[in-house]
Amino acid sequence: MASNKRKQDEKHLKILREMVALPSNKQCFDCHQRGPTYVNMTIGSFVCTSCSGILRGLNPPHRVKSISMASFTPEEMDFLKSHGNELNRKVYLGLYDARSWPEPDSRDEQRVRDYMVHKYESRRWYVAATDAMRDEARRTNEAALSSGKQQAKTPLRWQLGEHANKPSTNPAACVGVTVPLPGAVKTPFAAASAGSLAQPGAVAPSS
């Protein structure tokens, strides 16, 4: 039983790390600091350590969990797959206008806190999520995760080209690798090599 739980936790952690690596989740949803380490389970966003503490102090408090230290149920993972930072941007910042309330500097904790009160408690810029929006978020997230897994499974030689790791046995493949300097003396060996690389069917110039 403990072994199954550990395997499930490892599987969920792998998925979470893949999700936080998606372009829309690479920055904290609330202050844009890079490298979120927590998940806001109340709305399904990815946030930094500092903002996770502020979220706990809101009214009502948001439920946050550490990506690397907490366990997640299959239901929670399913919830996250249909949310993420991009969906929440459309919901909690749907009516947002930076001219009326500029985004705070992540180093100004009080400004960030005020911004989050407007965003969550007052719902100043809120637009209700629809089932269609959640379905689109799920499709986008699952497609991105699937693409990442496929890329990881693809042999490097296929990513670089079918023959990328095969040394060529054709002498012509080496043409252009070494270029004689102007004025260099052509040795008999070089002349013979150049002649052997002539195109098939080419007629040698008359002497």
UniProtKB/TrEMBL annotation:
The keyword Zinc-finger applies. Residues 10-137 form the Arf-GAP domain. One of its GO terms (molecular function) is zinc ion binding. Pfam families: ArfGap (PF01412). One of its GO terms (cellular component) is membrane. Keywords: Metal-binding, Repeat, Zinc, Zinc-finger. This is Arf-GAP domain-containing protein. It comes from Elysia chlorotica.
